[in-house]
Task: inverse folding
C-alpha cells in the first residue's frame, strides 16, 4: 500500500538536482557497480551471522521462546558531519531541558507556577508522587535517552518523540556497525566514518559517575527482566561490553539501606543499577505488588540514596506525548535558548477545537495514544481503511484526552535492499544521549527502516528493520596527507 | 560471581555431557543390533539403554513396546522426556542463553549454533535412518563445546563451575553404564570368550571411548573385571570415575571462594576411595554395591555444591 507521499518525499541519496546528493556521490558510484546478487549474498551472510550470534528478539504475544531476527539492511544511511552536529546539539539541548524539567516537577514545580505546564500533570499515571523531594545524584533522571528524529527535507528535521524510560536499540547501532565493517571493509577504508564502538565505555563511565556520594569504586550492574524479554539480547550485550554483571531481580536483595547481589562468595554490595525494567516492576513493595521481576525494598533504598537507579524512577512523566508538546517551551524556560530541533506540529484532542479539526481530517492524520509506545494503538490515516478509521473515531470519542494527532509526515526514504531489488523505504533515526559526567552522544544512531513499501511504521515489533548510520567526518586534504605519510612510515618500519 | 550465573554454567555443562553420554549409549546399542545374535531380542537389546539413563520406569508408563524405533525416539528426540538428548540440548542452550555474558562469545555462539543445527534432525525417524550420523553429530558438538570453552575462557570461577558440571555428570554416567552392563552381562559367564560376549564388552568400552585404551593398557582379551578396573580406578582413562574425581578435587581447590569445606571433604573422601581402592576388594564386597554407593555419594556432592554455591539466599 502506497502512502500518498512516498513518491515525492525527500530521498537521502537521490534528492538533488543532479540525481545524487554530493554526500552520497562516492557510495552511489560504488553501489552502482556492485551486482545485485552480490548484495543479496552479503545480506544472507549477515542474516546467518546474526542468527548464530543470537541477535534476536522475542515478539510479545507469540509463543514464548520464538526468536526472530530484526531485518538488517546492507545499505547504510549517511549523514554529513554538519548535519550531524545540528542533530547532536539539538538532542543534547533537549535532554538537558528534560532533565531539568524532571528535577523541577519533583521539587519546586516552577514550570507549573510559570503556567507553562498544567497542574494536571501531577495526576498523570507516570507521575510518581513517591519521588517528590527525592534528590538523585547530579540531578540526572534520564541517564540514557533515545531521541526519535525524522526528516522531511534537506534541512527539515523533526523530533518525533523522546524516550526517557528504558530506551532500547543501541545494540543494533553497535552490531550493525560491526557487521558492515565485516561485510564491506573496503568502504570503511574509502570513507572516514565516525566510530561508535566506544558507546559502552562512555555509558559505564557515566553510570559510575552517578554512584551514591562517597562510594569510591562503585559496582554497576544491569538489571534485566530475564531471557524472555524482547530486548534480552541487548541487555546481555551491554552488560558484556561494559564488563558488569547482568542480574535479574532474584539475584538482588535488600538489607539495611543497601542492595546486594548473591554471589558464590556471598553478598556483594551494588551501587548503581542500570535497570531495563519499567518503574512498575522494580519493587513489588512500592509499585506493582504482583511483579516477580523486581527487588522487594529496592525503592526505599533508592529514596534514601543507598543505590542509584538509571534511569531514575518517574521519568515517564516527561516522555509521553502530552509533555512532548511542551518541550520547546521547556528549553526556553530552563535554558533560555531557542530550540535547535523542532517538534512535529501536534493537535491535543483534549482541546475542543483541535478535536473537531482532527475528527474532520482523520484520513490525513496520524493519531496516537498519549501513553502508547512501540507502534501499538495508533492510526495512520492515509493507509487506513474506511472501517479502521471509523473504528478509531469511536475510540477517540470515548476518551479524547487520551489522544494526540499529527500531520502525516513525508518521512524521508533511503535506498534499501528488498526482494525486488533496491528501492526507497522510509527511515527514522534514534541517537542515544548519555548524561552523567557530561551530556554526550556518540556519532551514530539506530536507523530504523520500514521494510514494506510505503509503510511509515518503523518499529521492530511491526516488522521494521535497521540500517547502519554513517556520520562522515570531513577529513581535510592536509589530514589525508598526514595519514598517508603515517601509513607509509608504518610500511617502512615493517 | 553471581550464584545464578554459576548455577546456569554448571547445568549447561552437565546437560551437554548428558547428551553426549546418551548419544554414546544409543550409538553402541545400535551397533550391537547389527551383530547377528538369536539369543538377544530387540527388547533385551534396547532395555538396558533405558536403564542406564534411569528412564526405564518412565518409558514403561507410556509404552511396553521396546522396539528400536520407540526407544530411540524416546531417548533421542522426545521433548516430553526430560532426559532425552533433545531435552538435554534444549536445556543446555536455555542455560547458556540466560548467562551468555558469563562465557566467551565464541562459547556462546557454539552452543547457539548447536541448537540451530539440531533442527535438521527433528521429525526424522532416526531408527530408520541417520542414527549414527546423529550420534556422531552430538558427540562432535560436545567435543567442540569442551574445546571452545577450554580454549577461550578465562580460568576464573565461571570456568571452574562449568568444568565441575562436566565431571560430576560424567562420573554419574560412567558409573551407571558400568553398573547396568555388568549386571546384565555377567549371568552369561559361561560364554566368556565367546563371540557375542566379546562384542558386548567391546561395545561397553566403545561407549566410553575406551576400546583402544583397553588394548593398549592390558594387551589382552577383554575381561569384564578389567573393563571395570579401567572405568573405575584408572586415573589415566579420561571417562573413569577416578579421572573424574581427580578433576573435581582439583577444581574445588581452584575455586577462589571459601564456602566449600564440606564439598571438598566429600570429594576428597570419594577420591581417596578411588585412589587407594583395589579392584579385588571392590569385587569382594560387590561391584554393584560399590557403584550404587558411588552414585549416591556423587549425588550428595552435587547437592552440596548446589547448596554451597548455587542457591544462596539472603545470608
Result:
Amino acid at each position: 500500500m502506497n502512502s500518498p507521499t512516498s513518491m515525492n518525499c525527500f530521498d537521502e541519496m537521490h534528492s538533488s538536482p543532479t540525481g545524487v546528493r554530493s554526500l552520497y556521490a562516492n557510495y552511489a558510484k560504488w553501489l552502482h557497480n556492485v551486482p545485485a546478487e552480490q548484495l543479496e549474498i552479503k545480506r544472507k551472510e549477515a542474516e546467518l551471522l546474526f542468527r548464530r550470534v543470537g541477535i534476536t528478539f522475542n515478539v510479545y504475544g507469540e509463543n514464548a521462546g520464538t526468536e526472530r531476527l530484526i531485518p538488517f539492511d546492507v545499505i547504510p544511511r549517511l549523514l554529513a558531519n554538519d548535519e550531524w552536529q545540528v542533530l547532536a546539539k539539538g538532542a543534547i539541548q533537549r535532554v538537558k531541558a528534560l532533565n531539568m524539567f524532571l528535577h523541577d516537577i519533583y521539587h519546586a514545580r516552577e514550570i507549573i507556577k510559570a503556567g507553562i505546564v498544567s497542574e494536571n500533570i501531577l495526576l498523570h499515571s507516570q507521575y510518581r508522587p513517591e519521588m517528590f523531594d527525592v534528590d538523585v545524584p547530579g540531578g540526572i533522571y534520564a541517564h540514557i535517552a533515545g531521541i526519535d528524529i525524522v526528516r522531511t527535507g534537506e534541512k527539515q528535521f523533526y523530533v518525533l518523540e523522546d524516550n526517557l524510560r528504558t530506551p532500547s536499540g543501541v545494540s543494533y547501532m553497535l552490531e550493525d556497525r560491526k557487521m558492515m565493517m565485516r561485510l564491506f571493509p573496503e568502504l570503511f577504508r574509502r570513507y572516514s566514518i565516525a566510530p561508535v564502538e566506544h558507546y559502552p565505555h562512555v555509558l559505564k563511565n557515566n553510570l559510575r559517575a552517578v554512584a551514591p556520594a562517597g562510594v569510591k569504586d562503585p559496582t554497576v550492574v544491569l538489571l534485566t527482566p530475564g531471557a524472555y524479554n524482547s530486548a534480552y539480547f541487548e541487555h546481555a550485550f551491554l552488560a558484556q561490553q561494559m564488563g558488569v554483571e547482568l542480574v535479574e531481580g532474584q539475584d538482588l536483595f535488600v538489607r539495611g539501606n543497601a542492595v546486594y547481589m548473591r554471589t558464590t562468595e556471598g553478598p556483594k554490595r551494588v551501587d548503581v543499577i542500570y535497570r531495563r525494567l519499567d518503574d512498575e516492576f522494580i519493587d513489588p513493595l512500592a509499585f506493582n505488588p504482583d511483579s516477580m521481576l523486581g527487588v522487594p525494598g529496592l525503592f526505599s533504598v533508592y529514596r534514601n540514596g543507598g543505590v542509584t537507579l538509571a534511569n531514575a524512577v518517574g521519568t515517564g512523566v516527561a516522555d509521553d506525548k502530552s509533555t512532548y508538546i511542551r518541550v520547546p517551551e521547556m528549553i526556553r524556560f530552563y535554558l533560555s535558548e531557542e530550540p535547535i530541533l523542532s517538534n512535529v506540529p501536534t493537535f491535543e484532542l483534549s482541546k475542543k477545537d483541535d478535536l473537531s479539526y482532527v475528527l474532520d481530517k482523520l484520513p490525513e492524520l496520524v493519531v496516537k495514544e498519549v501513553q502508547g509506545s512501540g507502534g501499538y494503538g495508533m492510526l495512520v490515516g492515509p493507509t487506513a481503511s474506511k472501517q479502521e478509521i471509523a473504528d478509531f473515531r469511536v475510540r477517540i470519542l470515548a476518551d479524547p484526552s487520551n489522544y494526540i494527532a499529527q500531520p502525516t509526515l513525508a518521512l524521508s526514504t533511503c535506498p534499501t535492499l528488498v526482494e525486488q531489488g533496491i528501492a526507497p523505504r522510509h527511515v527514522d533515526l534514534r541517537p542515544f544521549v548519555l548524561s552523567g559526567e557530561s551530556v554526550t552522544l556518540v556519532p551514530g544512531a539506530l536507523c530504523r527502516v520500514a521494510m514494506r513499501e510505503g509503510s511509515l511504521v518503523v518499529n521492530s515489533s511491526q516488522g521494521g528493520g535497521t540500517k547502519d548510520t554513517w556520520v562522515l567526518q570531513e577529513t581535510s586534504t592536509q589530514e589525508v596527507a598526514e595519514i598517508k605519510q603515517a601509513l607509509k612510515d608504518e610500511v617502512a618500519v615493517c | 560471581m553471581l550464584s545464578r550465573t554459576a548455577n546456569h554454567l554448571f547445568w549447561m555443562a552437565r546437560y551437554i555431557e548428558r547428551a553426549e553420554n546418551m548419544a554414546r549409549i544409543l550409538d553402541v546399542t545400535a551397533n550391537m543390533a547389527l551383530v547377528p545374535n538369536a539369543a538377544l531380542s530387540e527388547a533385551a537389546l534396547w532395555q538396558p539403554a533405558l536403564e542406564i539413563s534411569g528412564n526405564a520406569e518412565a518409558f514403561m508408563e507410556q509404552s511396553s513396546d521396546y522396539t528400536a524405533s520407540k526407544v530411540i525416539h524416546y531417548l533421542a528426540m522426545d521433548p516430553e522426556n526430560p532426559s532425552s538428548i533433545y531435552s538435554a540440548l534444549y536445556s543446555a542452550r536455555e542455560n547458556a542463553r540466560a548467562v551468555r555474558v558469563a562465557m566467551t562469545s565464541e562459547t556462546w555462539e557454539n552452543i547457539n549454533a548447536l541448537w540451530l543445527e539440531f533442527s535438521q534432525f527433528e521429525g526424522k525417524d532416526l531408527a530408520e535412518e541417520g542414527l549414527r550420523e546423529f550420534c556422531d553429530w552430538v558427540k562432535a558438538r560436545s567435543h567442540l563445546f569442551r574445546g571452545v570453552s577450554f580454549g577461550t575462557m578465562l580460568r576464573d570461577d565461571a570456568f571452574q563451575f562449568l568444568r565441575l558440571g562436566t565431571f560430576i555428570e560424567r562420573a554419574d554416567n560412567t558409573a551407571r553404564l558400568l553398573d547396568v552392563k555388568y549386571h546384565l552381562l555377567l549371568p552369561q559367564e559361561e560364554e566368556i570368550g565367546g563371540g557375542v560376549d566379546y562384542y558386548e564388552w567391546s561395545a561397553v568400552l566403545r561407549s566410553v571411548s575406551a576400546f583402544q585404551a583397553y588394548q593398549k593398557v592390558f594387551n589382552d582379551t577383554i575381561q569384564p573385571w578389567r573393563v571395570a578396573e579401567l572405568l573405575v580406578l584408572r586415573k589415566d582413562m579420561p571417562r573413569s570415575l577416578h579421572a573424574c574425581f581427580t578433576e573435581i578435587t582439583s577444581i574445588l581447590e581452584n575455586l577462589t571462594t571459601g564456602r566449600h569445606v564440606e564439598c571438598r571433604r566429600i570429594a576428597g573422601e570419594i577420591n581417596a576411595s578411588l585412589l587407594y581402592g583395589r579392584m579385588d576388594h571392590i569385587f569382594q564386597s560387590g561391584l554393584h554395591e560399590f557403584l550404587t554407593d558411588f552414585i549416591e555419594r556423587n549425588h550428595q556432592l552435587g547437592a552440596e555444591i548446589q547448596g554451597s554455591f548455587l542457591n544462596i539466599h539472603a545470608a
